[in-house]
Write a structure and sequence with these properties.
Largest sheet: 5 strands, parallel
Order of helices and strands: EHEHHHEHEHHEH
Bound molecules: shikimate-3-phosphate
Mean pLDDT: 92
Structural class: alpha/beta
Low-confidence stretches: 179-184
């Protein structure tokens, strides 16, 4: 059984959708941020603060390498997982990558004021948010087998859309790897 890997920007609902999707498909659910926190026994904001972003990215990559070997899991990835091509290669080997795409205004509305997002803990979080968004949006698109525009959808509708697309093999036109539902 292949994994289903959820990617997307902060605030796109990867963990919420991931849990619901896992329930529906009877898969296990894992979240790379939670795995990093369990491994280090530290909160992500503390890892950023005390050890810096490069240290966080290194631990994140270890966690991704481990979880990518699993089977039959729904994996919600931290928003920056796509920055490292090795992460994506590992996840693609045994998984279908689903990008939860949304308008940046909607995403910013969801994450503004959040104290658990260290990347936005800067003097002008809004400017930083849009800067990171524009740096990353192509990475998400390129990594994805399936892109779901979640901007106007409720969680249950997003889950339904994902499962319907998977059933009908409607993945990204550039990717042929998951053209049959039987591969799930
Ligand atoms: C990050 C997103 C966060 C977390 C860390 C870095 C990012 O996860 O991994 O704060 O680089 O976008 P969420 O996408 O779950 O917020």
């Amino acid at each position: 059984m292949k994994n289903i890997v959820l990617i997307g920007f902060m605030g796109s609902g990867k963990s919420t959708i991931g849990r619901l999707l896992a329930q529906k498909l009877n898969y296990d659910f894992v979240d790379t941020d939670a795995l990093v926190e369990a491994k280090t026994k530290q909160q992500i904001k503390d890892i950023f603060e005390k050890r810096g972003e490069p240290a966080f990215r290194q631990i994140e990559a270890q966690v991704v390498a481990e979880v990518a070997k699993a089977e039959g899991k729904v994996i919600a990835c931290g928003g920056g997982v796509i920055l490292n091509s090795k992460n994506i290669q590992a996840l693609q080997k045994n998984g279908l990558i689903v990008y939860l795409k949304a308008e940046p205004e909607v995403l910013y509305g969801r994450v503004k004021g959040s104290e658990i997002r260290p990347l936005l803990n800067v003097p002008d979080p809004e400017a930083r948010f849009y800067e990171i968004f524009s740096e990353r949006c192509l990475h998400y698109e390129k990594a994805a087998d399936l892109i779901i525009d979640i901007t106007e959808l409720k969680p249950s509708e997003i889950v339904r859309k994902i499962t319907e697309n998977l059933k009908h093999g409607k993945t990204h036109p550039n990717r042929r790897r998951f053209s049959r539902a039987s591969q799930l």
